[in-house]
């Protein structure tokens, strides 16, 4: 272990490799901030550029793009409610609310700090326990994946807003939208109406850009817009109280994110949603979450960074990609003539440990960059909204095009923008919808596989101990808030029931 | 030593600037003066891979793109358009009719998908350019599995309890298992996944009894001893040192051998010059070291075919697999 | 799909009574969701709910999810019509409205604007027109992409919004749009080499 670390330091700490690491994290931050361009696209776009480098340098840079974009993605979520990546959607809830309250600088700093904390802790986990954890993760077959996805969907109740049933319905509609196209294991094209563009389904990132970025712009105009934030430089710095409140959520987020991240397929998006849901249940300030609380920033941001690092566990230990981005990275390994697989640690120790040690420096660089930059980025909000929003629209539409190099995506963005506007205006929550959209394909795939394994019997999820436990947890997560909500409503109705608002009655 | 190091740091710094500002400079204009007025596609080229990143098709597509980049001197970016066992990527490619700046990393699904699915194309709608080589599959199981040979697997199937994972309905692995079923009358239950990496996960996790993968996809796990090969579904044993000990299915009494071809195609309706240009580039690529490395790293059989030869190969291949898929 | 005029009525009501929610928007929205669910469920039946051997087929999840949406929407409608509507204390929208209120007060205090106007200096009628106008400009820009190319179309969009919606001077609009164009061009075209469509004119 110590020898390996020394070897890793020797490989990573050369002026050249540190420079590549720096280039990687800077490019990653920029790519992450741009709506539409996530880490997977970023790594794929820049992969050819690195082919002339030493394999170690190239992989260090590519990995830098990966975790760098995790930092960048939260910045645009917080400042302009435009998630750079699906794993940062949750930050548009509390992060954006903090920004509107004049705490943008603090939100950005909290995001950077919790990202750093999560990255370092999960890196230690990755270094120390990659092999045993990876072997453990193999126990997650289709039934377990099915159970954990249902568990993830069950967290909707925590960010569905007051009307839980509507939140769940929105998630189900998100699932339905995700079914457009040809599904895994079948040859039937569904809901495509003969369009080739719809065969591969609706890109959820395009829908996200529409719902959040365009929808928010139209909604701001409708409401008359926000005044530019006039906070002074000092107000943009994070306070001691905010820091103290963030520690526990960030730690919980890290643990949850790491656990979800090691599972092949589940990913950072699910982790960030679930950790937000967790905070909503256990945090001391749970009532504040949703209105711009630091807990709602720290936990999901820590979770998605921990998950990103954890996705290297199966990638390096088993040669099985743990996320879309690590799948592209595995392609890079092969292009460099490296055989990814269980022997990678033994055959290429300098490369693997050099890469891991570079994560440490990369995250340190990101922290050093992001902390002073947080108040600077927050200055964007001083720009009058009448100048800001046309630029947001421009950036969103170009980003949408870059997703698939297809103008069709822009139409998807436009239509979802209109929907997003109506959803915001009439209080149909968008976050559960996005969660359904993201988890839909994963849910269906594991459902089909589970059914194939059970020869048509889906109840094998209850026959396997691990998936049975997860299913019970999912059901509890779904039921507990509903039950308590029902009780609360009943009690409230008994108290205030008779004094219902007459205006409402007239309307119906 | 010192100077060299400094120079490298400088190169790195220069590349930072290049990456940030002007990456496009080197891509354009390069091949313009090459062949004196012959056709040359303009701008960037996109190589579509109709499967997810990380699988055999993806590796083939990325290697071909890199190799062609070398001989054409232009930028070729790889785009994974996955889904529907490849149907989504091919259908998307159909929308690029007449555009010589698009290529697609193809394999057997080019022939099999139109036979099994309701898609609106056949290989005749595209312009086949180059066949890189052929790829047989190995039937592999977990290292501590009770199965030792492929006949063990079919025997277990006959007793009604063999599960196999497949990367797509009607894919090479699916057909190989169909051949095994036909030869023995056993039943192998399929569990559908999307990529080779997912199959290995399912096998290592003990969800299924066996999978069928190209040697290049499982070399890492075979070498580490996590997986073992039951048989090779090929006509003859492999010559590669690592695979030479694996018996063929035929040796075990199962007459099962099925090859997957790999290559790349251009959209239909492109000009004659464009077609000739890509064939010429393909031939140049086949001479490069990059091509050799790809073939050896992925343990393919290097039998190339270009243009019309590739077309007639496709016609024969279709005749071969048609009875397997349309029963 | 969406009945806009009725939705507009709903918002009038919401402006008039700031604390309680209008039921019209809820009823229309919930019904739309229910219809989407119904469509999906019916299509799911057509796609085949089960595959061979009683396994999950391509229509299974559309049917189950669509069916759930239908039931949930019906339950919502029943609750809305037959039970007293709950007050939406602590809902997301209310927070937003409070923030909005504060912003308006802050602006009013500063004395720069007539309190009836918003931070853009628009009345509520003008705001409604602004949204329609912005969406029209967006739509026009996307239609123009195949003609003049992606970047030019969107630059034109920024300019039009600044001139026609925000009533900035042509010089200001030109400068802002040109700067935006330059930044986006450097990042996406030069840096990331995104093959942006140049349109029939083949300009940028």
Automatic annotation (TrEMBL), chain A:
Domain of life assignment: Bacteria
DUF112 domain: residues covered: 18-435
Transmembrane regions listed in the UniProt entry: 17-37, 44-67, 105-134, 146-165, 172-193, 199-218, 316-339, 351-373, 430-448, 468-487
Pfam families referenced in this protein's UniProt entry, alphabetically: TctA
Swiss-Prot/TrEMBL keywords: Membrane, Transmembrane, Transmembrane helix
Name listed for the protein in its UniProt record: Tripartite tricarboxylate transporter permease
Organism of derivation: Brevibacterium daeguense
From TrEMBL, chain B:
Record flagged with keyword rRNA processing: no
Keywords: Signal
Signal peptide per UniProt: 1-24
InterPro entries the record matches: BUG, Bug_dom1
Similarity-based family: Belongs to the UPF0065 (bug) family.
Protein name as it appears in the record: Tripartite tricarboxylate transporter substrate binding protein
From TrEMBL, chain C:
Record field: transmembrane: 23-47, 59-78, 131-164, 170-192
UniProt keyword terms in alphabetical order: Membrane, Transmembrane, Transmembrane helix
Annotated stretches, region: Disordered: 1-20
Top-level taxon: Bacteria
A Pfam family matched in the record: TctB
Residue span(s) of domain DUF1468: 28-197
Biased composition (Polar residues): 11-20
Name of protein: DUF1468 domain-containing protein
Source species taxonomy: Bacteria, Bacillati, Actinomycetota, Actinomycetes, Micrococcales
């Amino acid at each position: 272990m110590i020898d390996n670390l020394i070897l890793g330091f020797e490989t990573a700490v050369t002026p050249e490799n540190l420079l590549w690491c720096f280039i990687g994290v800077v490019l990653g931050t920029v790519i992450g901030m741009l709506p539409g361009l996530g880490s997977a696209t970023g790594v794929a776009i820049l992969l050819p550029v690195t082919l002339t480098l030493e394999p170690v340098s190239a992989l260090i840079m590519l990995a830098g793009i990966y975790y760098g974009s995790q930092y960048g993605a939260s910045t645009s979520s917080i400042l302009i409610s435009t998630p750079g990546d699906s794993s940062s959607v949750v930050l548009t809830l509390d992060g954006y609310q903090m920004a509107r309250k004049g705490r943008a600088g603090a939100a950005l700093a909290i995001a950077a700090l919790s990202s750093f904390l999560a990255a370092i802790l999960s890196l230690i986990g990755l270094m120390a326990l990659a092999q045993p954890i990876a072997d453990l993760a193999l126990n997650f077959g289709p039934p377990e994946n099915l159970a954990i996805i249902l568990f993830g969907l069950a967290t909707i109740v925590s960010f569905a807003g007051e009307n839980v049933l509507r939140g769940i319905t929105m998630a189900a509609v998100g699932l339905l939208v995700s079914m457009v196209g040809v599904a895994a294991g079948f040859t039937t094209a569904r809901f495509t109406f003969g369009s080739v563009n719809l065969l591969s389904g609706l890109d959820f990132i395009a829908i996200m850009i529409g719902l959040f970025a365009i929808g928010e712009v139209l909604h701001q105009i409708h409401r008359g817009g926000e005044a530019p934030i006039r906070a002074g430089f000092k107000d943009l710095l994070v306070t001691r109280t905010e820091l103290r409140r963030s520690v526990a959520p960030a730690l919980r987020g890290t643990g949850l994110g790491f656990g979800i991240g090691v599972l092949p397929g589940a990913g950072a998006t699910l982790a960030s949603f679930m950790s937000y849901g967790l905070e909503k249940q256990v945090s001391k300030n749970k009532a504040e979450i949703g209105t711009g609380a630091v807990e709602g920033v720290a936990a999901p941001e820590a979770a998605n960074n921990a998950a990103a690092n954890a996705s290297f566990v199966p990638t390096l230990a088993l040669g099985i990609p743990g996320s879309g981005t690590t799948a592209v990275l595995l392609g890079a390994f092969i292009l460099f003539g490296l055989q990814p697989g269980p022997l990678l640690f033994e055959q290429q120790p300098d490369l693997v440990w050099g890469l891991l040690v570079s994560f440490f420096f990369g995250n340190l660089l990101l922290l050093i960059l992001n902390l002073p930059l947080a108040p600077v980025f927050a200055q964007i909000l001083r720009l009058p909204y009448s100048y800001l929003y046309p630029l947001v629209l421009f950036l969103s539409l170009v980003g949408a095009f870059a997703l698939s190099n297809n103008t069709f995506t822009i139409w998807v963005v436009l239509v979802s923008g209109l929907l997003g506007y109506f959803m915001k205006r009439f209080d149909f929550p968008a976050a559960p919808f996005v969660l359904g959209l993201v988890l839909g394909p994963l849910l269906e795939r594991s459902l089909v596989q589970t059914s194939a394994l059970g020869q048509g019997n889906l109840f094998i999820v209850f026959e396997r101990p691990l998936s049975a436990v997860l299913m019970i947890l999912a059901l509890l997560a779904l039921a507990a808030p509903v039950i308590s909500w029902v009780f609360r409503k009943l009690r409230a109705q008994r108290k205030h029931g008779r004094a219902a608002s007459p205006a409402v009655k007239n309307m119906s | 030593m010192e100077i060299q190091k400094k120079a490298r740091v400088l190169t790195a710094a220069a590349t930072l600037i290049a990456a940030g500002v002007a990456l496009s400079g080197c891509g354009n204009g390069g091949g313009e003066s090459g062949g004196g007025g012959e056709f040359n596609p303009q701008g960037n080229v996109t190589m579509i891979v109709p499967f997810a990143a990380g699988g055999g098709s993806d590796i083939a597509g990325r290697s071909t793109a890199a190799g062609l980049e070398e001989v054409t001197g232009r930028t070729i970016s790889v785009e994974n358009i996955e889904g529907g066992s490849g149907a989504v990527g091919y259908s998307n490619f159909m929308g690029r009719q007449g555009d010589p700046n698009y290529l697609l990393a193809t394999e057997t699904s080019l022939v099999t998908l139109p036979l099994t699915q309701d898609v609106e194309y056949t290989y005749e709608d595209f312009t086949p350019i180059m066949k890189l080589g052929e790829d047989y599959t190995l039937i592999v199981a977990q290292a501590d599995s009770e199965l030792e040979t492929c006949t063990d697997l079919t025997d277990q199937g006959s007793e009604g309890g063999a599960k196999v994972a497949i990367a797509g309905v009607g894919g090479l692995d699916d057909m190989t298992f169909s051949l095994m079923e036909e030869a023995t009358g056993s039943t192998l239950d399929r569990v559908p996944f999307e990529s080779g990496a997912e199959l290995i996960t399912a096998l290592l996790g003990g969800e299924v009894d066996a999978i069928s993968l190209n040697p290049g996809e499982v070399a890492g796990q075979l070498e580490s001893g996590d997986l073992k090969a039951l048989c090779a579904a090929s006509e003859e044993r492999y010559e590669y040192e690592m695979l030479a000990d694996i018996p063929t299915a035929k040796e075990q009494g199962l007459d099962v051998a099925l090859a997957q071809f790999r290559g790349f195609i251009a959209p239909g309706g492109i000009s004659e010059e464009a077609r000739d240009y890509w064939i010429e580039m393909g031939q140049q690529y086949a001479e490069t070291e990059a091509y050799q490395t790809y073939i050896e790293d992925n343990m393919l059989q290097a039998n190339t075919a270009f243009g019309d030869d590739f077309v007639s190969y496709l016609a024969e291949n279709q005749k071969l697999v048609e009875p397997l898929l349309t029963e | 799909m969406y009945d806009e005029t009725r939705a507009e009525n709903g918002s009038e009501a919401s402006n008039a009574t700031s604390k309680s929610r209008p039921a019209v928007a809820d009823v229309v929205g919930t019904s739309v969701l229910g219809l989407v669910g119904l469509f999906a469920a019916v299509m799911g039946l057509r796609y085949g709910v089960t595959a061979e051997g009683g396994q999950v087929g391509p229509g299974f999840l559309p049917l189950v999810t669509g069916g759930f949406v239908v039931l949930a929407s019906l339950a919502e409608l029943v609750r809305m019509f037959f039970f007293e509507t709950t007050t939406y204390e602590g809902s997301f929208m209310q927070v937003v409205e409070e923030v909005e209120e504060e912003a308006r007060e802050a602006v009013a205090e500063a004395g720069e604007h007539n309190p009836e106007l918003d931070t853009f200096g628009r009345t509520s009628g003008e705001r409604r027109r602004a949204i329609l106008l912005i969406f029209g400009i967006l739509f026009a820009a996307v239609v123009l992409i195949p003609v003049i190319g992606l970047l030019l179309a969107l630059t034109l969009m920024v300019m039009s919004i600044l001139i026609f919606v925000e009533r900035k001077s042509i010089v200001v609009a030109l400068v802002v749009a040109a700067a935006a164009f330059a930044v986006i061009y450097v990042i996406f075209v030069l840096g990331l080499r995104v093959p942006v469509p140049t349109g029939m004119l083949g300009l940028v």
